[in-house]
Amino acid sequence: MSRIEKRFAQLKAAGRGALIPYLEAFDPDRETSLALLKAMPSNGADLIEIGVPFSDPSADGPTIQKAALRGLKAGATLSGVLEMVQSFREEEDETPIILMGYLNPIDSYGAEAFCRDASACGVDGLIIVDLPVEEADFIMPHAQRYGLDIIRLIAPNTPESRLHFLTAQASGFLYYVSVTGVTGTRTASHEELAAALPRIRAVSPLPIAIGFGIRTPAQAAIAVRTGDAAVVASSLISTLEETLLDGRATARTLPSILQQLKAISEAVHQSAKSRVDGD
Amino acid sequence: MQAPAASMNSLKNGPDDRGRFGTFGGQFVAETLMPLVQALDATYQAAKKDPTFWEELHYYFKHYIGRPSPLWHAKRLSDELGGARIYLKREELNHTGSHKLNNVMGQILLARRMGKTRIVAETGAGQHGVATATVCALFGMSCTIYMGATDVARQKPNVFRMKLLGAEVRPVTAGAGTLKDAMNEAMRDWVAHVADTYFLVGTVAGPHPYPAMVRDFQAVIGIETKEQILEAEGRLPDVIVAAIGGGSNAMGIFHPFLDDKDVRLVGVEAAGRGLDSGETAASISRGRSGVLHGNRTYLLQDEDGQILEAHSISAGLDYPGIGPEHAWLHEVGRAEYVSVTDVQALEAFQLLTRTEGIISALECAHGLAYVAQIAPHMSEKDIIVLNLSGRGDKDIDTVAHHLGTKL
């Protein structure tokens, strides 16, 4: 059983929704982001999404764009990100790690070599923003061989006919991009989510994570009331950004993000409990 | 008038049903955009087979753009260089001053067919932005143009023209503030406004069907050239030369000649300060295969797959990629890709002005610089056609600056 599968099974048994915080690798430097990564599980992260910095993140909003730029300035490379995951895995073997990024750095590394190395370093899943299912054969055979889940994205404007196609060979979990737009902008309402999720549930038994525009504990709580997991990215990065001095981490950086992470995770876990109680 | 015809065993058949030219092209976009590019593909495939679509486009080509554009025998230029007979396909005489309007007119008619009310576009030098703003004015559509902040600063007249035409120009400060960054921002806008917005791509790049569609709209250049040169000389040219940024003017003139094996097709990339200076825009000469902006093609990138900023004296050429069909034509060896530097382009710019009384865009001056290299080594019987894709009004400030004159 993969780490992702195991984690969702545990959460389901406990009647809890999952919180998936996001961090941009090497933002603002390698040490800080590795320390943040290591501290996330004990502060409420159930799974962790790591952004791989790319020069041209065309589906990301300004917050993640800037984070990616800081990461690149700090020397982020794809192999550097894999080494980060490896360091994390030396101490922690339970929390699933999902890398999120764009295709070109992976293409440059080589799809097969990348899947082999990512798996060896302890990566569990990949979200490749600009790799739709139509082009997935680029990586699918290698991902399957090395036991990596390719997380499928579903958008509000994904047509019914396409839903079947998208979920047919999906594994791990499904990622519902809850608003049409870039990261960190508008937030989907409970009503919108309540209308959208059954459509997806009808075609796939996989857990559904909801992302894009989830900023507050309350919004994260709403997301796990309808979905199975909430992804929080831009709002954590904004917190990080506010603590920087001349682009460098300060003593406030880690505590501020972790405090926010804790608050969101409490809301997520409370909300899920009330669902079990028959809310 | 119809879409360019293709037949069995023709180099004109691409792309395949996955939108690929060999290993290049494809549809590498976020899931939110997939329904849009698929809808666009379906609309275009239907329009392509609909004679009324081409009749309508031809009407605007003739009465609004001013087609056909002349094929001018540049005698004084030919004499000055000595050697081959040089013809100029005068796309700079189109309304708005470049070949860009051919494509833009085709796409705006499609956007109308799809019921879209808002247009977004990216622009480098501003030629595509001006063309887009023009058709939006003509058809009463809302228009937002993304332009790198660096380009906004160096292309002021075009920025002003776009605003006069009713477009909103949004400067992009991300990255180096040039065309690649404007492209990213236009894609972000499109993702955020999928319901009413049409993304009007300016070159033969982007996710399928853009590379094929833009080529088909620009192929009018090559179709006319073929007729005109047969009328003037009774035979096809020996060499066709065109400057390459994304490569739409080159693809437009090359495509109808792809199966004419004896016609050499030469794309001229911008070497910038030199191919090995680190400040270049020559993505075929100095790039390698990768994925950006929805397609697989040759890209300027570092070892880790991060995209590099391109440099050229011409804002219209400093894009780190090239259309996927060019990448394929390069790989199969049907077209040749060479490069000339900023300095060589500046010299050619002045040569054309002096000999023919034509102030060309800096983009086409790159093509001319290559023509000036090969023409003297050819005979008087040989024919070269240069696609003169745009006029140079927009570049006057840049040229003056480099020649040490203050306007």
Question: In words, what does this structure look like?
Answer:
The complex is a heterodimer of chains A (279) and B (407). Chain A has 279 residues and is α/β, with parallel strands linked by helices. In chain A, 48% of the residues lie in helices and 13% in strands. Chain A contains 12 helices and 9 strands. Chain A has helices spanning 3-14, 30-39, 62-73, 78-89, 103-109, 111-121, 140-145, 160-167, 190-201, 217-226, 234-243, 253-276; strands at residues 18-24, 48-51, 97-101, 125-128, 149-150, 152-154, 174-177, 208-211, 229-232. A 9-stranded parallel beta sheet of chain A has the order 5-4-3-2-1-9-8-7-6. In chain A, strand 1 (18-24), helix 2 and strand 2 form a beta-alpha-beta unit. In chain A, helix 4 runs parallel beside helix 6 and helix 10 (217-226) packs parallel to helix 12 (253-276). Chain A is globular, with a radius of gyration of 17 Å. Chain B has 407 residues and is an alpha/beta fold. Chain B has helices spanning 34-48, 51-65, 75-81, 100-113, 127-139, 149-154, 156-164, 179-192, 210-218, 220-233, 248-254, 283-286, 324-332, 342-356, 362-374, 396-402, and strands at residues 20-21, 24-28, 71-73, 85-90, 118-123, 142-148, 168-172, 197-199, 239-244, 264-272, 288-292, 294-299, 335-341, 383-388. In chain B, the strands form 3 sheets. A 6-stranded mixed beta sheet of chain B has the order 3-4-14-9-10-13, with helices on both faces. In chain B, strands 1-2-12-11 form a 4-stranded antiparallel beta sheet. Chain B has a 4-stranded parallel beta sheet with strand order 7-6-5-8, with helices on both faces. In chain B, helix 5 runs parallel beside helix 7 (156-164). Chain B is globular, with a radius of gyration of 19 Å. Chain A: Pathway: Amino-acid biosynthesis; L-tryptophan biosynthesis; L-tryptophan from chorismate: step 5/5. Chain A: Belongs to the TrpA family. Chain A: Its EC number is 4.2.1.20. Chain A: It comes from Candidatus Kirkpatrickella diaphorinae. Chain A: GO terms for molecular function: tryptophan synthase activity. Chain B: This is Tryptophan synthase beta chain.
